[in-house]
Amino acid sequence: MNDVGPAGGHEILIMSEEICEELVGRQDAFEAVEGVFAAMARGEARNFPVVREALGHADALYGFKSGFDRSGMVLGVKSGGYWPGNAARGLTNHQSAVLLFDPDTGRLKAVVGGNYLTAVRTAAASAVSIAHLAREDVKVLGIVGAGHQSAFQLRAAAEMRGFEKVVAWNRSPDKLEYLSSVAAELGLSFESVTLKELGRQADVIITITSSFEPILRGEWVKPGTHIACMGTDTKGKQEVDAALVTAARLFTDEVAQSISIGEAQHAVAAGLVAEADITPLGDVINGIHPGRANDNEITLFDGTGVGLQDLAVAEAAMRKAVSGGRASVVGGTYPAKGGRPS
Ligand code: NAD
Predict the structure, then answer these.
(1) What percent of the chain has pLDDT over 70?
(2) What pTM value is reported for the model?
(3) 203 contacts: CB under 8 Å, gap ≥ 6
(4) Best mutation site among 149, 170, 207, 265 for ligand 1 pocket (most ligand atoms within 8 Å of CB)
(5) Does residue 130 contact residue 161 with C-beta atoms inside 8 Å?
(6) Which long-range contacts link 192-199 to residues 24+ away (Cβ below 8 Å)?
(7) Which among 17, 166, 195, 207 could bridge 113 via Cys, Cβ 3.0 to 4.6 Å?
(8) Among the options 78, 109, 237, 320, which is catalytic?
(9) Distance (Å, rounded) from C-alpha 30 to C-alpha 76?
């Protein structure tokens, strides 16, 4: 695709945030994420160990998420992180870019903006969990958190079931205004509530905060609820109490991440949950695991965020950009014809 020209010139595609947003919709992201979760569970796609370090500057966390999907021939890395001071500057706290490589030669194929794709793939992950694990008759969607990701989460989740109402909680309730306007746009009623009330009303709950202590307690959550815990993606973070994790039937994107950097890390460390208690969501997608056993059990998806999700949506962006002629191309040959690298 990018090896063109009689001299074997090497073209690299560049896709801006704007192009990604224009080309990759929620359905594209859903299909890409569902497909790669399934490939991971079949052992055809592998995430490499995550590097995530505190920079000691700007309070930022920075790292790499990488992997290889043999079934889709997708190889690459997302590099970026979390700059908590960005919002005050009018910028997104998460900043990242994806590099895609040719798995046959290792040559760089594309540079893809990662900010929009991160939000849409994270929302797709919880949407895939809702599609496969939530009861069919759910009506009330609970959202915990009102940061950058939350509206993406709401839009994607709302498409999965016949929701009628959104109940939401945020540390500072005044920040719920935007989420409320998105709910209105989607034709859903909206109520700002306490966490206890959120648990009492919600049939599906998405937690998407940066909390480092449990904020949602198991005793507040109704039987039959599906919970997607999406905020905990680092050692030490926690959104729900260990009692809730212990009571729930557990699913995740990647078991190794769930027990180390995901929501299950605390229950596992306390000896309340074992690695074997956690099922990859891909097993449910592939029909290997039945998923929810009955209408009364609580299902919990521990969405830790894997590099292969980023690569899958970046690949989808690249394919659409190529077929629609929407990518910028930079070209050149190195070494120059006849030359040798020094
Ligand atoms: P953001 O900075 O825009 O918003 C942070 C949210 O967390 C706000 O609602 C804030 O009120 C809340 N919050 C922060 N500290 C809290 C605390 N101690 N108690 C309760 N609420 C608290 O961030 P964002 O972009 O919306 O991302 C939210 C979280 O999701 C981040 O922690 C991020 O690392 C995580 N995330 C996970 C994935 C994944 O794949 N699992 C992907 C993207 C982001």
Answers:
(1) 94
(2) 0.94
(3) 134, 135, 137, 138, 139, 140, 141, 222, 224, 225, 226
(4) 149
(5) yes
(6) 192/167, 192/168, 193/167, 193/168, 193/169, 194/169, 195/144, 195/169, 195/220, 196/220, 197/167, 198/142, 198/144, 198/167, 198/168, 198/169, 199/142, 199/225
(7) 17
(8) 78
(9) 20
Euclidean distance between CA atoms 190 and 106, whole angstroms: 49
Residue keyed to tokens 């079949």? 42
**Is there a catalytic annotation at residue 78?**
yes
Read off the DSSP letter of residue 248.
S
Q: Ligand 1: does its nearest atom lie under 6 Å from the Cβ of 86?
A: no
118 lines ligand 1 (CB under 6 A): yes
Best of 175, 210, 257, 263 for a ligand 1 pocket test (most atoms within 8 Å of beta carbon):
210
Q: Going from the N-terminus, what domains does the chain have, and what CATH number goes with each?
A: 3-117+307-333 (3.30.1780.10), 135-302 (3.40.50.720)
pLDDT in tens, 20-31: 999 999 999 999
Pocket of ligand 1 contains residue 147 by CB under 6 Å: yes
pLDDT per position as a tens digit, 236-257: 999 999 999 999 999 999 999 9
CA–CA distance, 49 with 134 (Å, rounded to integer): 30
234 CA to centre of ligand 1 in angstroms: 11
In the reported structure, the alpha carbon of residue 60 is separated from the centroid of ligand 1 by a whole-number distance in angstroms of 14
